[in-house]
Amino acid sequence: MTATLSSPSLGPGLDAIFQDVLRRSPAEPEFHQAVREVLETIGPVVSQHPEYVRQKLLERIAEPERQIIFRVPWADDNGEVHVNRGYRVEYNSALGPYKGGLRFHPSVSLGIVKFLGFEQVFKNALTGMPIGGAKGGADFDPKGRSDSEIMRFCQSYMTELHRHVGEYTDVPAGDIGVGERELGYLFGQYKRITNRYESGVLTGKGLTWGGARVRREATGYGTVFFVQEMLAQRDQSLDGKTVVVSGAGNVAIHAIEKAQALGARAIACSDSSGYVHDPDGIDVALLKQIKDVERAPIATYAARRRPGARFVPGRPVWELPCEVALPCATQNELTEADAAALVAGGVLAVAEGANMPCTPEAVRVLRAAGVPFAPGKAANAGGVATSALEMQQNASRDSWTFEHTEARLAEIMGEIHRLCADTAARYGAPGDYVLGANMAGFIRVADAMLALGLV
Ligand SMILES: NC(=O)C1=CN([C@@H]2O[C@H](COP(=O)(O)OP(=O)(O)OC[C@H]3O[C@@H](n4cnc5c(N)ncnc54)[C@H](O)[C@@H]3O)[C@@H](O)[C@H]2O)C=CC1
Ligand SMILES: O=C(O)CCC(=O)C(=O)O
């Protein structure tokens, strides 16, 4: 459902703020959805803090500090010229330099980048690290493009972006369609244009050129660490649990890897063509080979795997009963009907590895059924938190071990879980991670903005 002026009232004051958002940013439904979800939960905090109202903190947080839109011209392998649109929305820098990923996907628009940037502000605040929030990308479709086409696109994108980023200004990373390969081409172009080996300008880098161990794994691993904490609240663990994951990219692969390492059986994952069901448990090495190396569709997995694995085209992976569901693909991919199917199948916990993958209706179904639900801004914060650890290593010219970094990630996810759970309980909604995450993130950003004056 798209939030509109006729959506149920948020209460006095908040309705006016939301109407302003709709008026200023029309035709950006995902952005409206993200803002509305925060406004729906933030009332009790605002009513206890008249200074937030006086200083118009909600109005200021809803409005990005800066929105950059630029042309990205590039030539394909046949010499044909293409023009894409690039974006960087520098959302909020109260807590530190702007920080957040870049997404290359044909669906990217200003509204998508703004919703992602808005979420990033709260998520980054929850990590407790000194990072503001941003997001960027382009409506470029990397599917089927050669390495050299990807390189030329990245070089053209960075030729403009370099004016806006820097270790102390704005530090991009990867997201959908942007991984180590793309970050390498982006970093190479930045270094060439600026003549500076400024490692801290990007995170998610390769290990031989300034990257940090565990960044590649961090979002998926972190989501699973968060689920461990959710289950522990109910004296349960992942051991022996059946897990279903959507997506088959960076977040999905590493969520599956960690869930299996902790004794769960991850039986399915997907891409935009359909899902694979492998009742014996997904073979992660094969999945990495197909998705990371060959960049082939998920059907290839079933074709290569033992006969028990099957590919189901065009169906949601959520039709498979499971105890833990991890949506790790893209926004609004888990609908009301999918949530009802998960509840009917006996799901015990749902955690968003992706950004806003569950529709508001799906979240309502899960909450009404009493299923613990972790929003992305808490559950997938391990990626950006480890990016902040990468910045820390770059600044100190250090390189930590895998074990040390993973232990730090697990500790941070535990702290985020505690913060969300404690905040929800303090405001009379124990177990409500959505409310806890929104309130705790908001308070951190709002207090920093108050301290910095009217900026
Ligand atoms: N990479 C990171 O560190 C972080 C990523 N995220 C979020 O996680 C999600 C996934 O990102 P990555 O794994 O990095 O991207 P990726 O590009 O590595 O993988 C995305 C995967 O989702 C699949 N997909 C896309 N649309 C789909 C659909 N409609 N149904 C099923 N599968 C679909 C793609 O085929 C691909 O396998 C995104 O929402 C992203 O914003 C969140 C935090 C950090
Ligand atoms: O690591 C980062 O800076 C960004 C990760 C990201 O884009 C996200 O958390 O959605």
TrEMBL record:
Q: Which residues bind NAD(+)?
A: T219, N250
- Check the record and name the CDD domains matching this protein: NAD_bind_2_Glu_DH
Q: Which residues bind substrate?
A: K99, Q120, K123, G174, S387
Give one GO term, molecular function aspect: glutamate dehydrogenase (NADP+) activity
Q: Where is this site: Important for catalysis?
A: D175
Q: Where is the Glutamate/phenylalanine/leucine/valine/L-tryptophan dehydrogenase C-terminal domain?
A: 212-453
What does the entry list under GO cellular component?
cytosol
UniProt cross-references to PANTHER family, sorted A to Z: NADP-SPECIFIC GLUTAMATE DEHYDROGENASE 1-RELATED
Q: What is this protein called?
A: Glutamate dehydrogenase
